[in-house]
Amino acid sequence: xxxxERIRQLRELxxxxxxxxxxxxxxxxxxxxxxxxxxxxxxxxxxxTGSAGTALVTLNExxxxxxxxYFIQASKELARSEFKLMKMGVEGxxxxxxxxxxxxxxFGKIAFDGNTYSVKAYKQLSDNIGSRILITDVDYIxxxxxxxxxxxxxxxxxxxxxYAGYSLKEKIGKVRDIMEQKSFDYSFVGSPExxxxxLNIRGKDxxxxxxxxxxxxxxxxxxxxxxxxxxLKASVREYLENxxxxxxxxxxxxxxxxxxxxxxxxYLDPERTNVRIYDSINSNVKISQGINISTWMxxxxxxxxxxxxxxxxxxxxxxxxxxxxxxxxxxKTGSLNELLxxxxxxxxxxxxxxxxxxxxxxIAGYKENAAIVHYAPSASGSKTIRxxxxxxxxxxxxxxxxxxxxxxTLALGKVNENEKIDYTLVLKSFITLFLARFKDKTNGQRLDxxxxxxxxxxxxxxxxxxxxxxxxxxxxxxxPQRISERDDNEFVENMTTSIEPGLYIEGSHGIRIENExxxxxxxxxxxxxxxxxxxxxxxxxxxxxxxxxMLSREEIDWLNAYNKKTYEKLAxxxxxxxxxxxxxxxxxx
Length: 589
Fold this sequence. Notes:
α14 (303-331) packs across α15, α14 (303-331) crosses α19 and α16 packs antiparallel against α17 (444-456). The strands form 10 sheets. The protein has a 6-stranded mixed sheet. It has a 6-stranded mixed sheet with strand order 12-11-10-8-13-14. It is an alpha+beta fold. The N and C termini lie far apart (57 Å). It is 35% helix and 22% strand. It has 19 helices and 32 strands.
């Protein structure tokens, strides 16, 4: 069935109920970033495969809103159908709310599936649509999608405390302590990564995310887990029940919430709670809203987690050195393409006994494809890699002891002057945050401006975040903290973050350099507590595309010291051509 045929069938259903606009978000009942195939409804209806965006179908138009990471990709994919691209944050393109206000008549009906729409998004919509009517009980995509994939049934497994650092009881105890301080009788958790973190369990319900689709209701002395029970082996069920958890079918959450007595107070995260969940709560129950308690907890890694993440990055550094050594030899033959390269990297990683899965789809962009921020090579359009120009590899993995996310841009041969200038500017931006000292509880906005200063001085910029939190064998993008112009969350000790500035020139080249780091106390004096970023990632940074005269002495010293330390960490585990490649990549400049 073509995309336009899907649109036609959707409009037929809309006319039956006199609906003027139907919204299809990128979401599941848990408001996850990455989705099980079953929940990729926006991709099904529009053909746009990016990980972020919202589709809207009216009786006359079909549109998709997405951000700057996907403008190039979306333009290509949407060209096959009636759908039009709406560029978020770009002048001349109305937002979804502005479009609805301008194009849907007074008392018009706007519908969506309340299972996949968050409470926060619903409030924003309801506050801005005037007298228009919202309908939340419509799942038209299920009616159209006759070959919809089934949800997974892979078994749940237990994360050992030797990796997690704290037990289930310790984590739940901390949540209950905060609940008592805030006078909450219940805390509802709808985020799979938070539930997996709290219960020290992992699963395979979502590609690239070893989490378990479930709901958790925490009371003062009760713990109710709603989950597909077919996923629980006897040993896991016993572990959960021995820790005071009562297990229910997945859909039982609605009944449990409806039975909470009036005048009790429940706490929930409006960004990770869907409308149907919210509506099932007894109207006499007092609802408090904010970021999940556990989200703040898991953002600050335990010392045990930090040490384990370092071990994961050692494994990943070795895998990537072997991969880059193989890649540079292969580039000279003209027999490689982007897709083959990404598959080879996966194969090298999975040789490690502690490897679980990739933490996201590998981005392997050669030359102009690297300018597509979230480019993923395909069988039909994968570019041949040669010994010239630059290639950007952004990849990561989940190991038993931690999650990785690394980007390197390599010069495979001759690069031009503009590429050298841009590479050096990105490198300066990257180094800036590792040289920085910043007050405890500095927010992401300030750190973002600090990182971008070298680029702004030359009138250049990039339009994705400079950094994001990284989960511990959970989701590779983890909040609440981000290094971003729009983030005011505070950075404190043992928070982890990626540091990944970039620069993207459409039709020419793209550059990004990324390490993961954690916040470490540097010193304390009469002016306060000062922190720094300590790198968790050790992998050579390519020095071949650098214009050395653009770097300060301090930046050169930092780069040389970093590459030297990388060699010291990785060399004992390598031999032959891989060791020689590492040695050459870590030479001083």
